[in-house]
Amino acid sequence: MDTLFFHPRVVHVPIALGVLMPLVAGGILICWWRGWLPRRSWFVPIVLQSILVGAGFVALQSGEHEEERVEQVVPEAYIEKHEDSGKTFVWASSSVLVSMLGAAALGPRRSALPVAGLATLGTLAALWLGYRTGQQGGALVYEHGAGSAYAVPARGTAPAPIQDPGRYDDG
Who's near 63: CB < 8 A, 6+ residues apart? Predict the structure, then answer.
């Protein structure tokens, strides 16, 4: 299996699902509440949220695997900030999944809809956290040159110089 750039390949799954989940969960919740779809349709968002969480954990692991190489080009503080955001996104998404499962476990009780509504609101919070994580990952590549850690110098040329460390000062 080609492991080069595995992290950038896999992170798009949880980010894309993070964007879609408020729409999917909200749409199915409304249809369930109005009686247009049966209660069991709530399992669609549960399955999609499960995929989001699973792919998020894979993204975290693949990021850990590539961290050492990228640290040669980008200051560790920026990588740690992105990693912490990714962990927060995955754990928040896991909490949303638990609340979705809770709504399903309540079955036909009236309390199932409000719990599903809270889970749907949780998808909005996860969307924000996923956006922030993706923004920081993009900054690693496009502002801080993380992609150059994988650049292969042309024959007869020196590797690309590491960016000026002063550029990364926050102050």
Answer: 7, 11, 82, 83, 86
Please check whether residue 166 lies inside any domain of the structure.
no
Structure tokens at 170: 């926050």
In-domain check, residue 88: yes
Four-point Cα dihedral 104, 107, 113, 116, nearest 10? -10
What is the number of domains present in the chain? 1
Domain with 119, as residue range(s), is 6-147
C-alpha pair distances (Å), 79 with each of 52, 75, 128, 148 = 22, 7, 19, 14
pLDDT digits (tens, 9 = 90+) for 106-159: 988 889 999 999 999 999 999 999 999 999 988 888 888 777 777 766 666 555
Whether residue 138 is contained in a domain is answered as yes
Q: Rounded to whole angstroms, how far apart are CA atoms 74 and 58?
A: 22
Of the spans 28-37, 62-71, 162-171, which averages the highest pLDDT? 28-37
- Whose tokens are 């999609």? That residue is 48
